[in-house]
C-alpha cells in the first residue's frame, strides 16, 4: 500500500512539474486526494 501511494505521489508530482502548475492549492488538492484514497483502503483492509 505504501509503495502504491508513493508511486502515485511521484506520478502526480511529475504531472505537476510537466504542467508547470506548482501552486500550494495543487499540493493541497493532491494531499487531499491521497488522503481520501488512503482512507477507504485502510478501512477495507
Protein architecture, described:
The protein has two helices and no strands. It has 45 residues and is mainly alpha-helical. The chain has one domain (13-44).
Could you give a short description of this structure?
The protein is mainly alpha-helical and 45 residues long.
Query: What is the averaged pLDDT score?
Result: 62
Gross morphology is flat
Tell me the strand percentage band.
Answer: under 5%
Tally of individual helices: 2
Please report the total strand number as a whole number: 0
Kindly list the characteristics that best describe this protein.
mainly alpha; 2 helices; flat
Compile the SSE list and pairings:
Layout: H1 2-19, H2 24-44
Helix pairs in contact: 1-2
